[in-house]
Specification:
The structure is a single chain. The protein is an alpha/beta fold. The radius of gyration is 21 Å and the shape is globular. The chain has two domains: 10-184 and 363-386, Rossmann fold, CATH 3.40.50.2000; 192-359, Rossmann fold (3-Layer(aba) Sandwich). 40% of the residues lie in helices and 19% in strands. The strands form two sheets. A nine-stranded mixed beta sheet has the order 3-4-2-1-5-6-7-8-15, sandwiched between helices. Helix 4 runs antiparallel to helix 5 and helix 8 packs across helix 13 (333-344). Helix 3 (107-115) links the parallel strand 5 (96-100) and strand 6.
Length: 388
Amino acid sequence: MTGHRSDALRIVRLANFVTPASGGLRTALDELGRGYLAAGHEPVLIVPGARADDVRTPQGRVITLPGPVLPGTGGYRVLANRAKLRGLLEGLHPDRLEVSDRTTLRWTGEWARRARVPAVMVSHETADGVLRTWGVPPAPAGWTADRLNARSAHAYARIVCTTEWAEREFLRIGVRNVVRAPLGVDLWCFRPGLRSEDLRARHLRGQDVLLLLGSRLSVEKRPGRALDALAALRRTGVRAALVVAGDGPLRAELEARARAERLPAGFLGHVPGRARLARLQASADLCLAPGPAETFGLSALEALACGTPVVASRSSALPEVIGPAGLAAADNGPAFAAALQELLARPERERRSAARARAALFGWDRSVAAFLDAHDVPQGRGALEVRP
């Protein structure tokens, strides 16, 4: 080990596909960094950006390396300069390496092995799920995913999955170094007391039920299904409106569709600041999470913490996360609309209380402890499940 201090670990974290307008991944990186720092360690996050930077933040040191924009992703950048990144890693002398990208950064696992640095890869999405959402048929997607996952499991000391659902694609090929560590939610920042009737009325536009989609507007998130659900719900006579918090390459297409079909849908773009987003989540009646490849669904958990139930794709990990505080639906508009109606039939106080109670099971302290356990730094009991 090459620790710079006897009482702390330098945990170097690498992440691609992070922008100032990113959602769940950026939140997770920030909260985990704060937790590592509070536990007495030294987190260092390396991300791509438009220009080089090196700053101290509440989540620890954040180093930005210039990286090119990936075409068709709405602004996502990647750490493409291997020589530059390798030199930076060698200069940092990490005690632990944590990688949040299972594709372009997989080579860092081999670097870590040669440098004798224990390394983990965090699986923030399923390989076969992403391939299928991009149009790859199920069988080829499965074969390709199995090959990618076998290589990842070989490259890293451990694979960290946030849900049992996310583990399955590794377990089916016999991977033995998989551990489970849930993500969390800030239960003070996201709380039911932020509900605003004025804000709700503003977005309702004279309708009765306010639906919320908080998502990146890209193909793998299936944001068009929210419009499908809105249209189907209104055909049943429910006077519902939709507010969309998020941006991405599909935004113009979705806005054009809403206008053409005369659907009461408002598009806010990226909503800066967690406080503003929390007020919106607390003021909605129901939240939609249509992404079929989500391995956790941090935005949905934040909605639950605000007392807002969630309807999620049954193809994703969300049913495992939301539990009885929401419903899972088949991946089509009518199925989502039916689930929305079922939730609306429950007494409002009952459904909002159930949502908050479910979210209370997912504190960031538990998540930080589980991730530190994955790094062989035990911080609590029962936080991490290791698969034999």
